[in-house]
Amino acid sequence: MKMEQAIFAGGCFWCMVQPFDEAPGIHSVTSGYTGGHMANPTYEQVCSGTTGHTEAVEIIFDPEKISYDELLTIYWQQTDPTDAFGQFQDRGDSYRPVIFYMNEEQKQQAEASKAALAQSGRFDRPIVTTIEPAVPFYPAEMYHQDYYKKNPANFSRNHAKRAAFMKEKWGE
């Protein structure tokens, strides 16, 4: 079984894990940091805004069970692709929406899906999610992993604005 990797940033990584974690063909979803200039940053360092990192999720998946295009569909439905300066209540560069591609094929698929979303008319503002080459991904501290399972009440509070947006834009 050959696994592949995808990395997506879409605001608070706590809220990005569950939709991928529950999809078939997903081996693992890890919360972490990428896109910065410091090796092995801590949550506090990333939050300080001095490392250049973005909160993201690394997804290890079986492409025979779920395609990268299907992952992109899940991704778009979790984010506000018209907001370059954060997601929902989380503001700043560490929460910007980014698709980090692993190879040229992922880049082409991401660009095609972004163009299709822009042409769909679903959003009345430009799609500003960036598509960037993957750089080192650093797993977050253990207390951030599977946060939605460990802290369901706090997760629900943090996820409320995102959930309302998803329902408005994508329905049930």
From TrEMBL:
InterPro entries: Met_Sox_Rdtase_MsrA_dom, Met_Sox_Rdtase_MsrA_sf
UniProt-listed Enzyme Commission number(s): 1.8.4.11
GO molecular function, one term: L-methionine:thioredoxin-disulfide S-oxidoreductase activity
Active site: C12
Coiled coil location: none
Domain Peptide methionine sulphoxide reductase MsrA: residue ranges: 5-155
Keyword entries, A-Z: Oxidoreductase
Family matches, as NCBIfam families: msrA
Family label: Belongs to the MsrA Met sulfoxide reductase family.
Biological role: Has an important function as a repair enzyme for proteins that have been inactivated by oxidation. Catalyzes the reversible oxidation-reduction of methionine sulfoxide in proteins to methionine.
Protein name: Peptide methionine sulfoxide reductase MsrA
